[in-house]
Amino acid sequence: MDDNAQNLIVDSARPTPQLSRKMMEPRALRNTLLTGITWAFAIIASIPLFSVIYMLLARGGSRLFSSGFVEVLTALPPAGLQQGGGFGNAIVGTLVMVLIASAISVPFGLMAAVYLSVLDPQSRLARATRLLTKTMTGFPSILAGVFVYAILVTSFGYSALAGGVALSVLMLPTVVLAAEEAMRQVPQKMKDAAYGMGCTRTQVVTKVVLPTGLPGILTGIMLAIAGAAGESAPLLFTALFSNYHLEHLSGEPAASLSILIYNFSGMPFANQLELAWAASLVLVLIVLAFNIVARLIGTPKI
Fold first, then answer.
1. 98 and 228 in contact (C-beta within 8 Å)?
2. Cα(first)–Cα(last) distance of the chain, in Å?
3. Contact by Cβ (8 Å): 133, 173
4. CB 55 within 8 A of CB 273
5. Residue 279's closest CA among 287, 46, 158, 79?
6. CA–CA separation, 143 vs 8, rounded Å?
7. What is the number of structural domains in the chain?
8. What is the CATH number of the domain that holds 118?
């Protein structure tokens, strides 16, 4: 009998290990205890979130869906004791200012990310820029409004353009850091292969780095847009508020959902309070939509 047959007989004669889990073992008890504690803390942490969502659906949804969905989303805000109305101008103003902010922050953010990740990532300028960008992620939003107020508003007045510039200051760090990280994830072998085929640095960036890192870049852009859509402090100093539809990007105040909520929530009129709750629900849904899109874009395709 050869050695392989003997080993097979010995292995078959060994008792089969017991793989069943014994609940009273110390390791199993510790695992169950820690799992239960984790679930308990997760449920406690989610209570404020679900309570806010419930209040928005109960109070904002009652006005949004019971008194004319189209009217609430398109009509102008009421004044004083007037009934009805809506916040269509605030929705348009918010989308316009976010669009302006994206048009400013995305190109500059992508160019900065290309320099930080591809062109000269280890230079002194790149390290300083990376440090300043990370510092700006904790930049108080109201200071962005004060900065743009001193630069634009004092000379040209409150406007949607000034509001968009203020939001772009807040969006820029998120776009830069997300785009840089996405470009860093591109395998170096792909870049070396492109250089070996005779591609220039510009061609490597436009044909290899940007297309490969596009899902991560778009995810960062969507998250930055979602954050900017809910900002209110910088808009108090730059766009202010208006009860009318936006006609010019500069020279006149512009409405936004966040400032409408701020204004109406402090009024003693039931109609305005209901509109504030409805506007809060719409703003949450807009931010949620951007986050869902960012999640879908950033999910790897298998």
1. yes
2. 49
3. yes
4. no
5. 287
6. 75
7. 1
8. 1.10.3720.10
Residue 175 belongs to what domain range? 91-268+289-298
Q: Which amino acid is at 190?
A: M
Q: How many Å apart are CA 210 and CA 117, to the nearest integer?
A: 11
Instruction: Give domain status of residue 41, yes or no.
Output: no
Could you report the per-residue pLDDT of 177-227, keeping only the tens digit for each? 999 999 998 888 888 888 888 888 888 888 889 888 888 898 899 989 989
In a domain, 253, yes or no: yes
Rounded Cα distance, 228 and 166, in Å? 9
Is residue 131 included in any domain, yes or no?
A: yes
d(CA 136, CA 173): 6
Residue 267 has a pLDDT of 87
Q: Which DSSP string do the residues of the chain spell out, in sequence order?
A: --HHHHHHHHHHHSPPP--PPPTTSHHHHHHHHHHHHHHHHHHHHHHHHHHHHHHIIIIIHHHHHHS-HHHHHHSPPP-TT------HHHHHHHHHHHHHHHHHHHHHHHHHHHIIIII-TTSHHHHHHHHHHHHHTT--HHHHHHHHIIIIIHHH-S-HHHHHHHHHHHHHHHHHHHHHHHHHTS-HHHHHHHHHTT--HHHHIIIIIHHHTHHHHHHHHHHHHHHHHT--HHHHHHT---SS----SSSS----HHHHHHHHTTSS-HHHHHHHHHHHHHHHHHHHHHHHHHHHHHSPP-
Band (257; pLDDT cuts 50, 70, 90) = very high
In a domain? residue 45: no
- pTM here? 0.83
